[in-house]
Design brief:
By secondary structure, the protein is mainly β. The protein has a five-stranded antiparallel sheet, with no helix packed on it. A three-stranded antiparallel sheet has the order 5-4-7, with no helix packed on it.
Length: 107
């Protein structure tokens, strides 16, 4: 994770994907952590009991399954999943996206 007052080069993280998924904690902002995730495969159903989760698509298209609907996010779009809402993500094509969530999250 990067220190404050430093430049974070997102391109350096895009080469680190293993087995279709990579997730990197980039920095902390107060009690939040900013993560960069890169995926080519589906991620499993899960929820966060103590935190909302915000997705910002940097490249490609992210499909976000909720229990009642699927949300399609394209480059430059953002969506927040409230805490305790079951969800999973999957790529329409190879993409990078970022996440913002509380430092202490589980499940």
């Amino acid at each position: 994770m990067s220190d404050l007052l430093s430049i974070i080069d997102l391109d350096s993280f895009t080469k680190t994907m293993v087995d279709g998924y990579a997730n990197h904690a980039l920095t902390n902002v107060n009690d939040l952590v900013v993560r960069l995730s890169i995926m080519t495969e589906d991620f499993y159903w899960h929820f966060h009991p103590n935190s909302d989760e915000t997705f910002l698509v940097i490249e490609g298209t992210l499909l976000l399954d909720l229990e009642q609907e699927t949300v399609t996010l394209k480059q430059g779009q953002m969506y927040t999943v409230p805490q305790n809402v079951h969800h999973r993500t999957w790529p329409e094509s190879f993409f990078d996206f970022s996440q913002l969530q509380r430092n202490k999250w589980t499940k």
